[in-house]
Automatic annotation (TrEMBL):
Gene3D superfamilies: NAD(P)-binding Rossmann-like Domain (3.40.50.720). One of its GO terms (molecular function) is aldehyde dehydrogenase (NAD+) activity. It holds the Pfam family Epimerase. This is NAD(P)-dependent oxidoreductase. The lineage of its organism: Bacteria, Pseudomonadati, Pseudomonadota, Gammaproteobacteria, Oceanospirillales. Residues 6-166 form the NAD-dependent epimerase/dehydratase domain. CDD domains: SDR_a4. One of its GO terms (cellular component) is cytoplasm.
């Protein structure tokens, strides 16, 4: 019998994940307020419109073996973040815990913004979290809601996500802008396709009856200074840096994410560092000058 995965907040990552699961023979249901984007996708994902904070709307959703909560806030403000993360996730958990057929596992997609470390420290799943901003605090509240819930679940904290259409850094470099070399500001990244790959991998483990940790850190295998990443991009784009970015970067956290737990679970990265990942984005996005014949 086909297993069913319900993807709540089925945007870019959810759609990429859904395609993978469909290819593996699963039934995939994608939930979002506006299903027009999903309807236009040739993905085989069943699209359902629902408000994740409305109990009546959630009651109409089908049973599922796996829930993946990957919603995003409509705006960068406290009200939108509260609705999207703790309130939405708690409403979903309440709905599915009351059903005769409860899901076998729930995944909540979180962020490394819950860490407050900013001096290049190495962080993993056991490191303390003390977010100062409302976004990290509300994300952490949602994490705890799942970890403490009766339904079995895992939180996946993704680092900075890049990939097709997520090319802000490339555009900054193409304008000649680059981060300073000193002090080193470490950045942690994961390609969109590896986000989907990590979730598909963990879903497979859950459906196979494997015991999962309550928390995974989803970041590639090579934390790197932002200056190094941007200098590498500049070489690929054959542009010269003419401006050093300063003030916005000083407010950024600098830490090095350790993905050992994820690797020990058996996951193999498609793009283990920014070099492989950005090479794909540069090529597929048409950023590179054509080779001279």
């Amino acid at each position: 019998m086909k297993k069913t995965t319900l993807i709540l907040g089925c945007g870019d990552i959810g759609t990429t994940l859904g395609r993978r699961l469909r290819q593996a023979g699963q039934r995939v249901v994608g939930v979002r307020r506006n299903t027009a984007a999903l309807a236009g996708e040739d993905s085989g994902i069943e699209a359902i419109s629902a408000d994740l904070t409305d109990a009546a709307s959630l009651a109409e959703l089908p049973d599922a073996d796996v829930l993946v909560y990957v919603a995003t806030a409509d705006h960068f403000d406290e009200e939108a973040y509260r609705a999207a993360y703790p309130d939405g996730l708690k409403a979903v958990l309440a709905e599915y815990a009351a059903r005769d057929k409860a899901p076998r596992h729930v995944f909540f997609v979180s962020s490394t913004s819950v860490y407050a470390q900013q001096d290049g420290e190495r962080v993993d799943e056991t490191s303390p979290t003390a977010p100062s901003g409302f976004s990290g605090q509300l994300m952490r509240e949602a994490e705890q809601a799942l970890i403490e819930h009766e339904l079995p679940g895992s939180v996946v904290r993704f680092a900075g996500i890049y990939g097709p259409g997520r090319d802000r850094l490339i555009r900054q470099v193409s304008e000649g802008r680059i981060a300073p070399a000193s002090p080193a500001m470490y950045t942690n990244r994961i390609h969109r396709d590896d986000c989907a790959g990590v979730l598909a991998h963990l879903i497979d483990l859950a459906l196979a009856g494997e015991s999962l940790h309550e928390l995974y850190l989803g970041s590639d295998c090579e934390p790197a200074p932002l200056h190094e990443v941007m200098a590498w991009l500049a070489r690929q784009l054959k542009v010269e840096a003419t401006e050093t970015i300063q003030s916005p970067l000083r407010r950024r956290a600098s830490k090095r994410c350790d993905n050992t737990r994820l690797l020990e679970s058996g996951y193999v990265f498609r793009y283990p560092s920014y070099r492989e990942g950005y090479a794909q984005v540069l090529k597929e996005g048409g950023f590179l000058a054509p080779e001279k014949v």
